[in-house]
Input
Amino acid sequence: MGVAEKLDELEKLTLGFQASLRQEPRNAADRVMAMREEFNDLCVGLVQEMAGDPRIAHNREEFEAMQNAIETLRARTMTHQRKWNATRIQQDPLGYFDAAQPIYDVLREFVKNARVFVRD
Output
């Protein structure tokens, strides 16, 4: 799997998760917790793929820019996660959905910008 595929997975995870919350907000906490783990795993995998992709790895400036963008995204996500634990999500799933939208916006922007580095 390559960087482009990892970006696709990250985008698919986010879009699927948003649709899931819109369709069935009740009992969202378990899905949110699982999505958070999958998101983290995808970010780690993405950095590993970047390190193995010569288009990125051989351009230190691009590699560092992408790595910094991932870390910024993860930091924003972790801050959000501290505010929205499983109990709070269960009590207010629609509030969680609304609060998560800025994170999804940052993620979409990251994916869009990162794809520039892996175009053929």
Notes: Helices lie at 3-23, 28-52, 54-57, 60-83, 86-91, 93-115. The two ends are 15 Å apart (CA to CA).
